[in-house]
Specification:
heterodimer; A: mainly alpha; Four Helix Bundle (Hemerythrin (Met), subunit A); 5 helices; B: alpha+beta; Immunoglobulin-like; 6-stranded mixed beta sheet; 20 strands
Chain lengths: ~190, ~350
């Protein structure tokens, strides 16, 4: 039976690999859309690759988070880096979920305008960036160094909201999610 | 492709775990796995030398000292040192041979420890305090990981083992109990009260020294037969204290090895439920905001799909082009026919004049 440490390494490699490809595809998609990369025929390919890999990475993320929690030395959340990893990965998870839902529900219309295209790509890149930042924090936690050390990121500091603020944020987030979902469904019901 | 090629090339100049792997219980296979065959096949002038007390009794702590000389390090000065009981690569920790590690040089109880040496330092000596649980002989080995200033990292071990023979304990020998486990960690700013259990001991002296090497004595109080307590003053920073006891009784006096007690900051704590609540709040807020803003920025797919404005305009234009004239029909001299509005005349005036509505100007 494999240990949770080994399982965590496998899961994080899947997550990081998938999100890296998604981030690269989103970037190239943006360049094509804005005419910097003059290959319009690539749009469909990058569109599919970006969203497929984002979905794949998203599916692997819960396994990475859970195996990471069980493989961390000591009991519970005994390091600020672990807490920051949870915040970063969950926020990235949220961005990825939002990005995929709008692509699914709004279809190709997300590419209709420059503003819409920019925002969609930005949300996808935010998800990828946060996941890679999580991986970097993991490197700092386990090996004491990571590729992003040059930026001196404050992994040792935790921005913890008061519980009331977290509760309000949670309900506000759920409300926004439900309202946005209804708005998309209302549009769809005209069909 | 260029970026990927660059990253692949960079890996040649990298080293596995250059920041260390942390003190831990590791067998020899770990060293091979982390540094790979390349490091095992490297050569080094390092000399590893193990030494122990001449007489080792079963159940009584003893010191194994590893002296390492003539090695080079990377710029970080980090080296990793192993204490092993065979060279098979697995199940070769002292624990696997029936030995218990009571303390190591870093204030833990691990067989693999890391040390950061100063620039130019190429010699060091470290000790483990161990305890045998059975009689017989055991061969100890040492292994080292070290980086290289101008060469590749090296991973290697002692050429031959250091054999020790465990003997039975003499009758009435003053000693620590066989199940006594010394603490290895304490919290900064908190005095440490030690409880020591002994056998065949009538008096006890407690000595401790900090990193400056000055040996101090602490008062020892008896808390029962062969049970003693003493206090080590609080540490003001992350540092180590070495302590030992001198036991006297009917048998010959015994001095224990120097045990190491490290001081560290109190462990970091956080309310986990608050963390998870905030994490889920961040998840839903991020997803909700993305969907909300994207829905606002994107034109409605259904409206766009069923937008027939262009079709209507086209049909209206065609209708107007096929009308008898694009100009208004002239209003009769008597004014608009009875019951006609101006709008009706605009649309159907030509038809009226053509007699389609019973007009008199056929």
């Amino acid at each position: 039976m494999n240990s949770s440490e080994t399982f965590h390494v496998v899961a994080t490699e899947l997550v990081v690999g998938a999100f890296s490809v998604a981030g690269l595809s989103f970037t190239l998609l943006l360049l094509v859309h804005f005419g910097i990369l003059k290959q319009p025929s690539w749009i469909s390919m990058f569109d599919h690759v970006a969203h497929f890999t984002l979905t794949f990475g998203l599916a692997a993320t819960p396994f990475a988070i859970l195996s990471g929690l069980s493989s961390a030395p000591g009991e519970g959340l005994n390091s600020p880096i672990l807490v920051n990893k949870i915040f970063l990965s969950m926020t990235g998870f949220g961005f990825a979920v939002g990005c995929l839902i709008v692509r699914w529900r709004l279809g190709n219309n997300v590419w209709d305008s420059k503003k819409s295209t920019s925002f969609h790509v930005a949300s996808g890149l935010a998800a990828c960036g946060l996941m890679l930042l999580t991986a970097s924090a993991g490197g700092t936690f386990s090996r004491g160094e990571s590729l992003l050390d040059m930026f001196h990121l404050p992994y040792e500091h935790v921005l913890l909201f008061p519980i009331l603020v977290s509760l309000i944020s949670l309900f506000l987030g759920l409300a926004i999610l439900v309202l946005s979902w209804k708005r998309m469904n209302a549009i769809s019901s005209i069909h | 492709m260029f970026v990927l090629s660059l990253l692949l090339l960079c890996s040649i100049f990298g080293a596995a775990e250059p920041g260390g792997n942390g003190d831990s219980l590791q067998d020899l296979q770990c060293g091979g796995a982390c540094h790979g065959d390349a490091s095992i096949n490297e050569t080094s002038t390092t000399i590893l030398s193990l030494s122990t007390d001449e007489t080792i009794y079963v159940g009584i702590p003893t010191t194994i000292t590893l002296t390492v000389t003539n090695f080079e390090t990377s710029t970080s000065g980090l080296i990793g040192l192993f204490l092993l009981t065979d060279m098979t690569g697995h199940s070769d920790m002292p624990q696997d041979a029936g030995w218990e590690i009571l303390s190591d040089a870093n204030g833990g109880a691990m067989n693999y420890i890391e040390q950061t040496l100063g620039p130019g330092q190429n010699e060091t000596s470290i000790s483990w305090v161990v305890r045998a649980s059975s009689l017989g002989s055991t061969t100890f080995y040492a292994a080292i990981h070290h980086g290289g200033g101008y060469s590749s990292p090296y991973f290697g071990s002692t050429a031959s083992g250091h054999e020790v023979s465990v003997q039975p304990v003499p009758e009435n020998l003053p000693r620590l109990t066989a199940d006594f486990t010394p603490p290895t960690l304490r919290i900064i700013d908190t005095p440490t009260e030690l409880s020591i259990q002994t056998q065949f001991t009538e008096t006890i002296q407690f000595e401790w020294k900090s990193e400056d090497g000055l040996i101090m004595n602490s008062i020892v109080n008896s808390s029962g037969e062969n049970s003693w307590t003493t206090t080590i003053p609080a540490a003001l920073q992350s540092t180590t204290v070495h302590w030992r006891v001198i036991l006297e009784g009917e048998g010959p006096a015994q001095t224990t090895p120097w045990f190491i007690l490290a001081a560290e900051e109190s462990s970091w704590e956080i309310e986990e439920s608050t963390v998870y609540l905030q994490a889920f709040a961040l998840l839903f807020m991020a997803a909700g905001i993305v969907i909300l803003l994207q829905t606002r920025l994107t034109s409605s797919p259904s409206f766009a799909k069923y937008d027939e404005t262009s079709v209507v305009d086209e049909a209206l234009g065609a209708y107007q082009n096929t009308s008898p004239g694009t100009t208004l029909a002239p209003i009769p001299e008597g004014g608009l026919p009875n019951g006609w509005s101006e709008e009706q005349w605009e649309l159907h005036g030509h038809d009226y004049l053509a007699g389609k509505y019973g007009g008199d100007q056929a």
